[in-house]
């Protein structure tokens, strides 16, 4: 399985800056308001210092009252400013998250089917849900909180330096412990938390597999083996959790002690200075500086707490942004128009994900209106050729063209009008019956939808409470396998392609469903070019021509009768199958 790309750090940074620029005004207002709130917060300790000095110098109650009132006013101003700042910040976060979601949906829809198939839909879903949500939380909470805390910490340190540069230097020196401890921690935390997350996922997977397959486990007496693997998974969870706990148990005590160090240093140095020369520094200044440094623990705590989250969501954002690096399916400018409906395969070689070639130079010309069956042993390359014919993948070398134009060069709408691959997977989308059908023909009228449903024998739609307007899916009408297939085939009728690539759509169905589908299919095939990847030789017998594939090569091509007469591989297959039938 090949994962979808992940953006490298420089690209992730550029994308983040682009998002900020798109809502630059709100971002600037948020920063400004936070800075003002932080500045208002600085008044508290300074005013307290002033009160102490006023009391010491014997000033009256009125002076102290004035300072106390100012203290109250600044506290109120700070509260209002920071409230408004977080309101602006949250709005900025939600708008940006909406932008990321829209961009993600756009990019996901532009991905070629082959890229999603190779990465597994799980990867795309995790990026679209867990990763986008993690980025959202960061944008709304962690990001602004860290910014606010950083501004506050800077202002507080600045204030101590303004009060007295020597006391400021003492405060700064006291913080060195935090700097080293957090660097030590952050270097190890990412891997440790990733390992813990992976161990949790593995345990969940083990438990789900054991409970989901309980009957099989019981029938095959696998209890001991399952218990052992669950036990191993639990043990790994414990081990990784203990490691992250150890990291925290080192960091937090050091940080807690380090918060007190600058305060103690300021009190010691300030006290010594005062005793030596009372005019050098006042008691109020020393107390204010100590209070400031005490206040510093709050923003620093926030920064440390959120840094981890920021690291996690940076990884998430790199995965979300990585989608931009995936190949896009639709060609952008002036898509070419096919001259006619002839499908040509010329010198096609194909390899999955840089592996060995599984098609080794296939040439095939399919006439409009013809029915061609492709047969061959399992792994011969029939499905791969079918996917290339339907434009779901491009050949490594050689070409697959319709009317002279490469099928992968057609835009999706035009390709849908030309070639459609019909497989056994029939997805029913959330929405009404009409919505499910209009995917293939957005402009179709209700009458056209009904005609398509009638063509595939989907009479059941007429009996639904709201007909075409009936909701399908959870909590609404849930179509069974046969009905889902009829909807898929009605979509094909509506798209009206001239060529159908049929991956033996009925081969894996139960007999009653298969009967229904075969009737519907016969109606759909009428008047079209059909390339059937045949698992049953009856399909080959009924076709105009049969192509035999072996080991990625087209080894025989001709009518059923001529191939039987030629007495080659097809004849042998036919006789074996016929023999088995009789
Ligand atoms: N997604 C994939 N990744 C890597 N190799 C693949 C993939 N799908 C098919 N192959 C390989 O390509 C070769 C051709 O497979 P393909 O499915 O086209 O054969 P097939 O004739 O359709 O077989 P079957 O009748 O079993 O469906 C096989 O060797 C198969 O293992």
UniProtKB/TrEMBL annotation:
Transmembrane domains' residue ranges: 26-48, 60-81, 147-180, 245-269
Main location as per UniProt: membrane
Keyword annotations from UniProtKB, A to Z: ATP-binding, Cell inner membrane, Cell membrane, Membrane, Nucleotide-binding, Transmembrane, Transmembrane helix, Transport
Recorded GO MF terms: ABC-type oligopeptide transporter activity; ATP binding; ATP hydrolysis activity
Residue ranges of every copy of the ABC transporter domain listed in the record: 343-576
Domain ABC transmembrane type-1 positions: 28-312
SUPFAM superfamilies, sorted: ABC transporter transmembrane region, P-loop containing nucleoside triphosphate hydrolases
Membrane topology, as annotated: Multi-pass membrane protein
GO CC terms: plasma membrane
UniProt keyword Cell inner membrane present: yes
Protein's name according to its UniProt entry: ATP-binding cassette, subfamily C
Source species of the chain: Nonomuraea solani
């Amino acid at each position: 399985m090949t994962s979808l790309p992940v953006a490298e750090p420089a690209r992730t940074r550029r994308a983040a800056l682009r998002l900020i620029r798109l809502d630059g005004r709100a971002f600037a207002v948020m920063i400004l308001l936070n800075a003002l709130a932080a500045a208002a917060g600085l008044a508290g300790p300074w005013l307290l210092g002033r009160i102490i000095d006023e009391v010491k110098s014997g000033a009256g109650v009125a002076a102290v009252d004035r300072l106390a009132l100012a203290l109250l006013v600044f506290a109120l101003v700070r509260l209002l400013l920071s409230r408004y700042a977080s309101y602006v910040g949250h709005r900025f976060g939600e708008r940006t998250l909406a932008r990321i979601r829209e961009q993600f949906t756009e990019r996901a829809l532009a991905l070629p089917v082959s890229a999603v198939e190779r990465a597994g839909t799980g990867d795309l879903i995790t990026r679209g849900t867990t990763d986008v949500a993690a980025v959202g939380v960061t944008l709304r909470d962690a990001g602004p909180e860290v910014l606010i805390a950083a501004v506050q910490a800077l202002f507080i340190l600045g204030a101590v330096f303004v009060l007295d540069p020597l006391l400021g230097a003492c405060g700064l020196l006291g913080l060195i412990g935090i700097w080293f401890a957090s660097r030590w921690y952050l270097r190890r935390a990412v891997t440790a938390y990733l390992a813990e997350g992976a161990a949790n996922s593995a345990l969940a997977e083990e438990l789900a597999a054991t409970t989901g397959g309980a009957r099989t486990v019981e029938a095959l007496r696998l209890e001991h083996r399952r218990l052992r693997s669950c036990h191993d998974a639990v043990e790994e969870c414990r081990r990784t959790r203990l490691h992250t706990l150890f990291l925290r148990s080192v960091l937090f005590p050091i940080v807690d002690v380090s918060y007190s160090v600058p305060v103690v240093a300021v009190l010691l140095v300030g006290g010594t200075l005062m005793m030596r020369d009372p005019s050098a520094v006042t008691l109020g200044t020393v107390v204010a500086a100590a209070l400031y440094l005490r206040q510093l623990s709050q923003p620093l705590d926030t920064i440390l707490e959120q840094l981890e989250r920021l690291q996690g969501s940076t990884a998430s954002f790199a995965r979300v942004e990585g989608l931009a690096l995936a190949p896009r399916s639709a060609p952008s400018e002036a898509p070419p128009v096919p001259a006619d409906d002839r499908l040509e395969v010329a010198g096609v070689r194909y390899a999955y994900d840089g592996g060995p070639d599984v098609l080794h130079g296939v040439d095939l010309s399919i006439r409009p209106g013809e029915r061609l069956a492709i047969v061959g042993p399992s792994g011969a390359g029939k499905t791969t050729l079918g996917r290339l014919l339907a434009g779901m993948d491009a050949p490594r070398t050689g070409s697959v063209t319709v009317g002279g134009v490469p099928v992968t060069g057609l835009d999706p709408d035009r390709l849908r009008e030309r070639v459609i691959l019909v497989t056994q997977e029939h997805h029913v989308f959330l929405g009404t019956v009409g919505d499910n059908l209009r995917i293939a023909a957005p402009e179709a009228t209700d009458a056209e939808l009904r005609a398509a449903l009638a063509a595939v024998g989907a009479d059941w739609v007429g009996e639904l409470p709201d007909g075409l307007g009936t909701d399908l899916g959870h909590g609404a009408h849930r179509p069974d396998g046969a009905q889902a297939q009829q909807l898929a085939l009605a979509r094909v009728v509506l798209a009206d392609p001239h060529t159908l690539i049929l991956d033996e759509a009925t081969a894996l169905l139960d007999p009653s469903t298969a009967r229904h589908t075969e009737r519907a299919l016969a109606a759909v095939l009428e008047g079209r070019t059909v390339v059937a990847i045949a698992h049953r030789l009856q399909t080959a017998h009924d076709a105009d021509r049969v192509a035999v594939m072996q080991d990625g090569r087209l080894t025989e091509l001709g009518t059923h009768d001529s191939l039987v007469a030629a007495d080659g591989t097809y004849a042998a297959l036919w006789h074996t199958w016929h023999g088995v039938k009789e």
